[in-house]
């Protein structure tokens, strides 16, 4: 089945969010997705877009996605952060993920990045093997840390540092 990779557009966002929810289900965390099409539209298509994406499309519509943004490393400089690469289950195994990844790598070079970085779940063996084929370094020594918005608000309010 033929497909094409193209830059994402605003009108793609409803399907993009569906793919994100499909990935969250696969990653055993469907309840974690709180994003909305409206928020994605503001964040990606407003006056200062903070992410970009490519879609894989065939006669069935959008069946794959690579979503990325830029980050800055004090050690390495500008880097492309690959947030998600998603290929709907029925379309896996036909080279779509590889082409999405290749297009994202090219974007990193086009945007003068000094490299790419991303995360992969330690139990997602197919993804780990996919990235190893590219020679990606899999670093198990760094741990992820996060604070959700409600935590930020609560912590800052307790310190008297916010008006919320």
Automatic annotation (TrEMBL):
InterPro entries: Acyl_CoA_acyltransferase, Diverse_Substrate_AcTransf, GNAT_dom. Pfam families: Acetyltransf_1 (PF00583). Residues 3-157 form the N-acetyltransferase domain. One of its GO terms (molecular function) is N-acetyltransferase activity. Transmembrane segments: none annotated. The keyword Hydrolase does not apply. SUPFAM superfamilies: Acyl-CoA N-acyltransferases (Nat) (SSF55729). Its EC number is 2.3.1.-. Keywords: Acyltransferase, Transferase. It is an enzyme of class 2 (transferase). The keyword Acyltransferase applies. PANTHER family: DIAMINE N-ACETYLTRANSFERASE, GH14572P-RELATED. Belongs to the acetyltransferase family. This is GNAT family N-acetyltransferase. It comes from Dawidia cretensis.
């Amino acid at each position: 089945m033929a497909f094409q990779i193209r830059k994402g557009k605003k009108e793609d966002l409803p399907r993009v969010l569906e793919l994100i929810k499909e990935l969250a289900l696969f990653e055993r965390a469907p309840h974690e997705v709180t994003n909305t099409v409206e928020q994605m539209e503001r964040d990606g298509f407003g006056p200062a877009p903070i992410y970009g994406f490519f879609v894989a499309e065939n006669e069935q519509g959008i069946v794959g996605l690579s979503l990325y943004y830029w980050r800055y490393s004090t050690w390495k400089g500008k880097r492309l952060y690959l947030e998600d690469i998603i290929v709907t289950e029925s379309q896996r195994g036909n080279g779509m993920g590889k082409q999405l990844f290749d297009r994202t790598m090219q974007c990193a070079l086009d945007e003068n990045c000094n490299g790419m970085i991303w995360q992969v779940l330690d139990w997602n063996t197919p993804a780990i093997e996919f990235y190893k084929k590219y020679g990606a370094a899999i670093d198990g020594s760094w741990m992820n840390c996060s604070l959700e918005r409600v935590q930020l608000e609560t912590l800052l309010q307790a310190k008297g540092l916010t008006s919320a």
